[in-house]
Automatic annotation (TrEMBL):
Pfam families reported in the protein's UniProt record: tRNA_edit
Residue stretches spanning the membrane: none
The protein's Enzyme Commission number: 4.2.-.-
Entry GO MF terms: aminoacyl-tRNA deacylase activity; lyase activity
Record flagged with keyword Metal-binding: no
One GO process term, biological-process aspect: translation
Organism field: Pseudobutyrivibrio ruminis
Family to which this protein belongs: Belongs to the prolyl-tRNA editing family. YbaK/EbsC subfamily.
Protein name per UniProt: Cys-tRNA(Pro)/Cys-tRNA(Cys) deacylase
Coiled-coil portions: none
Top-level taxon in the UniProt lineage: Bacteria
InterPro entries listed in its UniProt record: Prolyl-tRNA_editing_YbaK/EbsC, YbaK/aa-tRNA-synt-asso_dom_sf, YbaK/aa-tRNA-synth-assoc-dom
Sorted UniProt keywords: Lyase, Protein biosynthesis
Taxonomic path: Bacteria, Bacillati, Bacillota, Clostridia, Lachnospirales
Domain YbaK/aminoacyl-tRNA synthetase-associated: 35-148
Length: 159
């Protein structure tokens, strides 16, 4: 009997909503950057996105999804969510807040919903890659389908 594919919560949520996706996995991905993972999976790094969680001056949390080779512009990001300033969430706070570990954080399936902003460059592609919620696992999903599962905005948030 063939081994059944291990599904992540992200994949289960996409299945529930009947949203098509492709799953990619890479063994021993711990410690690899998003760019290295994209390279090993032969993905266009401009099409591969990472999920960053931040805290605003108000104490609210926000999720930003940016290309793996890009850096989040904190001023643009703060402006996008109407905050005076934002800072990156401390790594130790990521798992309790989102349910995800560093390197395996996905904008889909967090413990609770946070305002989510995806860099406008995603709209240049029909599909993008992002974490499937587990280190070394990614999903490729149509950009237009993302809003069917989470509420997102698209704006320029990178340096």
């Amino acid at each position: 009997m063939a081994k059944k594919e291990d599904k992540t919560n992200v994949m289960r949520l996409l299945d529930q909503k009947k949203i098509p996706y492709e799953h990619f996995s890479l063994e021993n991905a711990d410690g690899l950057s998003g760019e290295e993972i994209a390279d090993k999976l032969s993905e266009n790094p401009a099409q591969a996105f990472k999920t960053l969680v931040t805290t605003g001056k108000t104490g609210n949390h926000y999720v930003f999804v940016v290309p793996v080779a890009a850096e989040l512009d904190l001023k643009k990001a703060a402006s996008a969510v109407s905050e005076k300033s934002i800072e990156m969430l401390k790594q130790k706070d990521l798992l309790p807040l989102t349910g995800y570990v560093h390197g395996g954080c996905s904008p889909i399936g967090m413990k609770k919903f946070f305002t989510t902003v995806i860099d406008a460059s995603a709209e240049n592609f029909d599909q993008i890659y992002f974490s499937a919620g587990k280190v070394g696992h990614q999903v490729k999903i149509a950009v237009e389908d993302i809003s069917k599962i989470i509420k997102v905005e698209y704006t320029d948030i990178i340096k």
